[in-house]
Every structure is written in C-alpha cells, then in structure tokens.
C-alpha cells in the first residue's frame, strides 16, 4: 500500500484506475493524520487499487499495489509492504477488500485477527534457497537482511516515529528567538547581545494578520545588524513553554545565577535528580522534551550527566466514583451484562435491543469480583470508574470533602487508597471511615492526657504536664 501523498503515485496508476485514484486521493488529503489513523479509522479501512503490481523479490509473486489513507506520506517512505496475517491494520484492510491473508508466523488464528506476537516462521517454501521454517522471527529477519544486502536487492534502515518539532508560536508571551533578518536572510544574534527580551506593551491582542502580536511593534521589530550596521528585522514568533520548562530543575539548584545556566560545581554536586514524581500528563510530553533538552546541554558541555533523572515514579490517577450500568429490554426487564454486547446494545443470544441505564449504588452489591443487582443476583451490571471531568459531572471537590469530614480525613484517605502508582476510583464513603478513625485516635489521646493538651505548640514540656 502507498500513501495518497506518495511522490511516485502517478507512475503506478494505470489509465483505467486513474480517475478513482484521483478522487480517492483528494478525499484522503482533506483528512488529518488523526482522522486517518485514529479510532474511527480502525473500524473501516478505505483504499483503491492502482492497477499495477509489485514483484516479490523472494518468490516472484505478483503483489497488487493499492492506495490507502492509513499509510502516511510523512512516515518512512510512504509505502508499506502489507503483512495482513501479522499486522492488525493490514489484516482489517485485507478483510475489507477480500485480499489473500497468508500466515507466515505460527501462533494465533488468522481468520479472527492478526497474530502480532512471537512465533516461528512457517510456509516459507524454500524461496531463494533460504530455509527459514521453524526459525524465530528475529533469526529470520537477520537472515533476510543479510541476504538482501548480499544480493544487492536493498539495504537495512531504521524508521523513527519522532517527527519535526513545531517550535514557534504566534503570540506575545514566550522567549523571543535570537534571530534577525537582513534582506530576508536569517542571522543569529551575537552572544554578547543576548538575551533578547520582550518589549513592555499595553495590549497582547492578536495582530489581525495571523502574525504574532510582536509583528506590529515597529520600534522593537526594526533593528540594525550588529555586524554590518544595516537595517534588520527581528523574528516575531516566540518559543513555546518548552523552552523554559524543560530545564527548570537546573535553575532550582542555582536560581540567582545571572551569567550561566548553572554553576558547574553545583551541577556536579546535585545532578542528576534522584527522584521525579509526575503523572500521566508528564509521562510522554514533558519528560520526553526534558530528556531531549538535557542531552543537548550535555553535548554542549553545560551538564555532566547524560540523563536528567535517576528514577521516575508515575503516580496513578484518581478516577471518579464507580458508575454502575445495567441493561434493560423494551419491556423494562433487566438482563445480565454477560448477555449483552455493550457496543452494539443488543443481546448476544436473541439479538434484542437493550437500553443502557445508570444503576444507583444502593441497588447493587458485590459478589466475588463482580457487581449484581440486589433485587436479582443473576443480573450482572457493569462497574466502571472514569477520569474526572466537568463534562461527565463526576468531579470531586476537595473543599466539599474538607467541609464535611476535615482536611486530615481527606489526607488520610488519599494515603490509604493504595500504592502511589496505582489508578484508583474515588469513594466518598471512604472518607467517612478515615474520619471515624481519626476521631478514635483523638479520643484515645484526650483520654490518655486527661484532657490536658496544650492549646499551642511551645518549647517547654511543662505545659504538657498534668494539673
């Protein structure tokens, strides 16, 4: 399959397929990458044949060439060799268009879904004199790569998913780029003129032209080239927040240094960071960029450690309270969730339509690892906690919990929920338990001291003495 943006596509399309390919490419190019590869795209693959065939260099088979929008032009070469038995996207595409699905790795059931796990090569048929049957995928891959390079049929390469980083913003706030333009040619601002600072302005309103608000500040934009003295213009885009937030941990060590990012002696003493605690919001974006930034600083000789953080702990998310979903037939009768296709909202056996309804907490009870209706223990209900969000209406306000049970009860409940790394559902009833526990501790202390606790913390132990 080739991407709709593939440069050589016109050369691959036969005359009788040219119009259908042209129309398909127009539609595909109007979609975003997310639309082409996201959840919706997974359910229904689209594509059209080009009318031409590629020749498999190992066995001489003719392989039809298709255009498919799940192949992205900006990733790799924009061409994929489909392996439908062992790649789920290729499997769905082959099923959609009734293309052959040939198993070449043992394991799984290709008639149901692609087998993407480990296994041994099978059905090789001694192509090109290579005996690969029974070998692991890793072994076979290495043999094939060596064969391809030895025969001059190709060479190995590594494709990276990391894309170009869009590192500019059309807004006032953010670090200015130290760039000036002389007759349209970009030049770096000399080190002695750094840093370039933002001008003080009274309004941050957009320029109205799509440019940064800085673009309309002629006194700031128009400058002179420090080398030649000729007129120049400043870059008006600013850096995103990554520019300042990716190396903040270094400034924590040496926050008042006006001449260097960090004092080398302090950096060597304190770095790397022993423990970084961050949630899922940091796990991909911030930590990826912070690590990238740190490695650039290492290559520049600013820091002495290759890695910024020795250990990372990703604390689990606290979800909203568990929500219970039951399934009801048209006559109002509840049916067990075991009998229901929750996506299609039909019963699995009789294919009757069902309605998903919320079930109150007091109407269900736990039975082993599941939840059932109190009124009919044969009816299983689905129990699930969701991420807190205003749109879902399941946000728990800490102020309300503190008002009802106290701040200490809230703190204790958070600590009692389980290991820091685990995702846990919130349960307001749990704070009632911690409030009762703290009340018992308080009563125990009060009884042990005869009610003679000091009203304030003091340096003298005499204030705590009875009577």
From TrEMBL:
**What Pfam family is a match, any one?**
tRNA-synt_1_2
Q: Which domain of life is it from?
A: Eukaryota
Stretches assigned to the Aminoacyl-tRNA synthetase class Ia domain: 381-416
What InterPro entries does this protein's entry cite?
Answer: aa-tRNA-synth_Ia, Leu-tRNA-ligase, Leu_tRNA-synth_edit, Rossmann-like_a/b/a_fold, Val/Leu/Ile-tRNA-synth_edit
Q: What is its EC number?
A: 6.1.1.4
Gene3D superfamilies, sorted = HUPs, Isoleucyl-tRNA Synthetase, Domain 1, Valyl/Leucyl/Isoleucyl-tRNA synthetase, editing domain
Q: Which UniProt keywords apply?
A: Aminoacyl-tRNA synthetase, ATP-binding, Ligase, Nucleotide-binding, Protein biosynthesis
One GO cellular component term of this record is: cytosol
Q: Where is this region: Disordered?
A: 29-48
The Leucyl-tRNA synthetase editing domain extends over 15-131
Which terms under GO biological process does the entry name? Answer: leucyl-tRNA aminoacylation
Query: What molecular functions are annotated in GO for this chain?
Result: aminoacyl-tRNA deacylase activity; ATP binding; leucine-tRNA ligase activity
Kindly report, in one word, the top-level EC class recorded for this enzyme: ligase
Q: Which residues form a coiled coil?
A: none
Q: Where is the composition biased (Basic and acidic residues)?
A: 29-38
UniProt lists the family membership as follows: Belongs to the class-I aminoacyl-tRNA synthetase family.
Protein name as annotated: leucine--tRNA ligase
